[in-house]
Amino acid sequence: MSEGATTTPAYAAAGVDIAAGERAVELMKKHVARTRRPELVTDASGFAGLFRLDPAKYTAPVLATSTDGVGTKVLLAQAMGRHDTIGIDLVGMVVDDLVVSGAEPLFMTDYIACGSVVPERIAEIVGGIAEGCHQAGCALIGGETAEHPGAMGPDEYDLAGAGTGIVEADAILGPDRVRPGDTVIAMASSGPHSNGYSLIRHIVDRAGLDLAAEVPELGGVLGEVLLTPTKVYAKDCLALVEAAEVHAFSHVTGGGLASNLARSLPDSVDALLDRATWRPDPVFGYLAARGGISREDMEATFNMGVGMVAIVAADSAERALSTLAERNVRAWTMGTVTPGTGRAVLEGDHQ
């Protein structure tokens, strides 16, 4: 939206309020300013975000890119009237895909579509995106807010984002580095993150659960617990790469732990994972019990308490765990890599 634009009577009658959009832009500026990096270049027109790479800093740089949304978790945010954390979820979904390759997230752009621009609500959403970028160390370099009256209800919105990162060509992580004998390290999730919310909403509806109800075994209001934002691991993973011999990462998103970890394995090995090394957060047991969901279905849908996995050389495992502990990331040895056929296999029972 251009500066100083005013809504024409015809456009206003169609449900688009340009003035509200201008107000939203003003409210979000303070949030975006928190994410500034020195490489940003000012584009006076505001049509594009510019980012300068220092040629002296890189030898053979490779750009990495990722795009994602937060799925139907936005419906829960709307139902709870809570819009300040959903943007953290968006950033986590994007930057933690980038860092799997070893790439440092540089910048993000966002896209918010809504039925009606409510400036304060848009600013809350962008504030969450900015907080996520701050946690990841990347710049929020631009974005777009689009008003879609008729296509979406006045209180409905959806958001998506795209991120760009950078990694040296000889430092790209992935399956080709993984070897038998490697150690598999789990990093705790903060909850379901942004995956499985269609099933969560189905359980809530079918079981007649009250999102506003206090649930003692979860330590809070159900809806607030389910809105716990996604853990952003980007800086922790980059610190791990500096401290230990990391061969691969796996970001545990839709499809669960085993299927996502298998993506980071070559066809010549398996990852054997011991369920007894951790106890999933209570929210997973609560959802399984209220929905009558089998362990197989839970593990194929949710992260079950593991949001990111690092595969490291065996002699780097202790160094990796101590680095994560220093960064206040709950982590543990979950398994080992053995000769196999490219599978991640869960064995045993949880604590």
> From the structure provided, what is the oligomeric state, counting identical versus distinct chains?
single chain
Please provide the ordered H/E string of secondary-structure elements: HHEEEHHEHEEEHEEHHEHEHHEHEE
Write out the CATH superfamily name of the largest domain: PurM-like C-terminal domain
The best one-word shape is globular
What number is the mean pLDDT? 93
Strand order of the largest sheet: 10-12-7-13-11-14
What would you report as the Rg, rounded to the nearest angstrom?
21 Å
CATH topology of the largest domain: Phosphoribosyl-aminoimidazole Synthetase, Chain A, domain 2
Uncertain spans = 1-5
Any guess at the CATH architecture of the largest domain? Alpha-Beta Complex
What is the helical fraction, as a range of percent?
25-40%
Structural notes for this entry:
Helix content is 34%, strand content 25%. The chain is α+β, with helices and mostly antiparallel strands and 351 residues long. A hairpin with an 8-residue loop joins strand 1 and strand 2.
Task: Give a concise summary.
This protein has 351 residues and is an alpha+beta fold.
Main features:
alpha+beta, single chain, 14 strands, six-stranded mixed β-sheet, 351 residues, 60s Ribosomal Protein L30, Chain: A, Phosphoribosyl-aminoimidazole Synthetase, Chain A, domain 2, disordered N terminus, 2 domains
